[in-house]
Write a structure and sequence with these properties.
About 5% of the residues have low confidence. The strands form 3 sheets. The chain has a 4-stranded antiparallel beta sheet with strand order 1-2-3-4. It has about 130 residues and is of the alpha+beta class. About 20% of the residues lie in helices and about 40% in strands. The chain is built from 1 helix and 9 strands.
């Protein structure tokens, strides 16, 4: 069953042009998708025929800067916990996680949760770098 293809529109953007790293956890599918002018991190809640939800796009505000790109590893999605890498426009980068068992609408709440998790990641990274 189809999840998404290049005839579908990236929510808030144009048609998808490419996809990378589809990952499955329970009945949800997470992936990065490109569109003209950027890319994003998406999850299809409920699998094929479910709800396509954008989690984060290039150009979105994150941790006082903007997202330059988003990367998923091959083992970054388990028990509806999704890990991803994010480089920011200000030169900082990091790894964050978000929990997807019930992604609320609108997704700004999911991004708020991402922010709290990411702040913990950044704080831990700074603590270990000072040693």
């Amino acid at each position: 069953m189809k999840i998404v293809d290049t005839t579908d529109t990236a929510p808030g953007h144009g048609d998808f042009t490419n996809f990378n790293n589809p990952l499955v956890s329970e009945s949800n599918v997470a992936f990065t998708g490109s569109y003209t002018g950027g890319s994003g991190l998406y999850v299809e809640i409920g699998g094929a025929g479910g709800t396509l939800t954008p989690l984060l796009n290039t150009g979105d505000a994150l941790f006082g800067s903007t997202v330059s790109s988003i990367f998923l590893g091959s083992l970054g999605y388990d028990n509806n916990t999704l890990a991803f890498q994010y480089p920011l426009a200000n030169g900082h980068s990091g790894i964050a996680i978000t929990y997807l068992s019930a992604v609320p609408e609108p997704t700004s709440f999911a991004l708020a949760a991402l922010g709290l998790v990411g702040l913990g990641v950044i704080a831990r990274r700074k603590k270990y770098c000072r040693a």
